Amino acid sequence: TAPARDRLRIAIQKNGRLAEPARSLLTACGLSWRQSRDKLFCYGESLPVDLLLVRDDDIPGLIADGVCDFGIVGRNELDEQGAARRRIGLPDAYQALRGLNFGQCRLMLAVPEEWEWSGVEQLAGKRIATSYPAILADWLAARGVDAQVVELSGSVEIAPRLGTADLICDLVSSGATLAANQLKPVETLLESEAVLAGPVKTPDDARAGLMAMLLRRLDGVVKVRD
Ligand code: ATP
Ligand code: ZN
Hints:
binds adenosine-5'-triphosphate, 12 strands, elongated, 30% helix, binds zinc ion, alpha/beta
């Protein structure tokens, strides 16, 4: 188990869609940081709450390992890594504590525009490219559909044109990327937004009080912004 700490650590995305909104949300909660030179670690000034700036993919693992106490990450990423853990028999190590009302998107199945969509039975024997293999595999299994999951770490939307897959399962917000690749969305697997993620079990040291206080402030800020 991780050692006792008296400062809180929050992991947020260093660069990307959630980076700026996550930081400004925490600032609105009254947090401020001393600017550090490497900018991977920001030392908390107004409160003993430090920031870790990382790739979003690393956030669930940092919470699972007890390196960070909270993280701001898309529900899509948290659910994928949670589902992947469950598939190999690992216990749940983190949970979404609050929805944060930004970073909204959907994880969707999208098929070539010329397909006539009649329902999930149509997926039998098809190859589906995705960066969310665990969520997709669970979704297919729950519907009794036998399709092949092709895991790709990026550029999923060009897979059908390249012939590496028949259709895709990817994040969609405006739909413009799908349209540009002659794909159309047909099924929603997950409605996602940025969430505050935390451990399943609250640490029993000075961090517990800080975590409770931050949650209270966050609730106030998110409510006012609504
Ligand atoms: P990193 O370098 O941190 O790994 P990334 O490329 O994985 O970055 P971003 O593209 O910045 O991540 O997306 C971060 C999160 O923003 C996504 O996981 C998702 O929750 C959310 N998001 C909102 N809209 C979209 C969208 N249209 N496409 C992708 N992600 C979106
Ligand atoms: Zn990422």
